[in-house]
Amino acid sequence: MESEATWRLGAFLGVLALLLLAERIIPWAQPRPLGARRWVANLGLVALGSVLVRLTLPLAAVGVALWAQDAEVGLMNALDLPLWLSLPLTVVVFDLLIYLQHRVFHALPWLWALHRVHHADPEMDATTGLRFHPVEIWLSMLVKMAAAALLGAPPEGILVFEILLNATSLFEHAAIRLPPALDRALALVIVTPRLHRIHHSEREEETNSHYGFCLSIWDRLFGTWRGRWEGELVLGVRGWRAAEEQTLPRLLAQPFRRLRG
Ligand SMILES: [Zn+2]
Question: What angle do CA 79, 81, 85 make, to 5 degrees?
Fold first, then answer.
């Protein structure tokens, strides 16, 4: 656990570099008037979110899990589960938790105003997977910290989950087109870019589907699976798609602004 930060950063940069390369080799075609001009804002949001979490919630989810382990707090610590069982269980339970959290962020108007910053990206590539309002990142960390304590999850499990969540978020937003057979096979288990794009459609019934992050089973289980979009796919959110809305200051302010007209 001592080299936690190195593992996180290494995995993040490695996956991001691989996906940016894959976007050149097997691109998914979409209109891209802005392209890399969105990157400063998308990366800026995740950087500010990370700083906010570090300054105000320095324990973070892994820290809470370490504390719970010491204090023997939480379900898994009470059951004294071996790591080979508690680690994969933590990953699955946390993936379900993030699925449910995602649905809540769509259902409550004030949370949607925050999460809309993510959806308002008029184009999709791996950096869209980093574009979350700092307050959403902060709230999500609070949820994970509470869950880590209640569940008594092993710190290793949380670390693996967070690295995985980060990597899958980059992957499912990547502008890549996988060979159809591979895509179908992967989609049986995990969320592929083709599936997640449906969630970024501006059509409400399509946005309100495919909430899953890592495992694709939750959408099948809870009835939010569509499998494809109807007609033309228009990315983004109506009214927030303009180029001048994609700067870091505008995106930070977006949840608190009303659309004129
Ligand atoms: Zn969403």
Answer: 140
Question: Cα(87) to centroid of ligand 1, in Å?
Answer: 27
Distance 184 CA to ligand 1 centre (A): 22
pTM over 0.90: yes
- Boundaries of every domain in the chain: 4-177+246-254
Contact at 8 Å (CB) between 250 and 38?
no
Question: For each of the chain's 261 residues, which pLDDT tens digit applies?
Answer: 668 888 888 999 999 999 999 999 999 988 888 888 899 999 999 999 999 999 999 999 999 999 999 999 999 999 999 999 999 999 999 999 999 999 999 999 999 999 999 999 999 999 999 999 999 999 999 999 999 999 999 999 999 999 999 999 999 999 999 999 999 999 999 999 999 999 999 999 899 999 999 999 999 999 999 988 888 899 999 999 899 999 999 999 999 997 664
Kindly list the distances between the CA atom of residue 196 and the CA atoms of 88, 146, 187, 192, 258, in Å, as whole numbers in the listed order. Answer: 23, 27, 10, 6, 27
From the CA of 82, how far away is ligand 1's center (Å)? 35
Q: How remote is the CA of residue 78 from the centroid of ligand 1, in Å?
A: 35
211 Cα to the center of ligand 1, angstroms: 6
The residue to which tokens 């990953």 are assigned: 91
Q: How many Å lie between the centroid of ligand 1 and the Cα of residue 4?
A: 28
